[in-house]
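Table 4 source record.
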Amino acid sequence: MQENLSRRRFLGWSLGAATAVVVAACGGDDEAPSSGASDGGDTGGSGSAGSGVGEGVTVAMFASPSCGCCGSHAAYLEEHGFTVDLERTDGLDAIRADLGVPDEVVGCHLAQVEGYVVEGHVPVAAFEKLLAERPEIDGISLPGMPQGSPGMGDDPDASFEILAFTGATVEPFMTT
């Protein structure tokens, strides 16, 4: 019998290891990103492309086999210093369920960053705030697949409301 990955065990998986896990769930058929690859600008404020916000943080990305935007989001993260390892999987819904991600915050990607869940095409500015402040929350989200978000057109003038969640409680985290 396969052991379910408990929420606390998964969230604690990378503590001290500076690891992020990103799970993408969108349509298309892109390939793994190459370092420095991009399809647009620097959406999300807080530094420019190549600013090194994610220096030392590894992102293990799991994507739907048919995902078309996860490679673009991974390239965006790489531009900001994150190291991204992309692996394809069909188990995204089970991972979300195991982590207790509320339905109203589901986005395109599911990430785990130093003990936090990050859901959707979240701009680097929100990653930076999360890692700098380390609030007592389960995670953050940019629900859906908003046009202009990183990996979805990368509009540097776009603004997005990022939500924080703890269990079923959802509240504003920041606006980029």
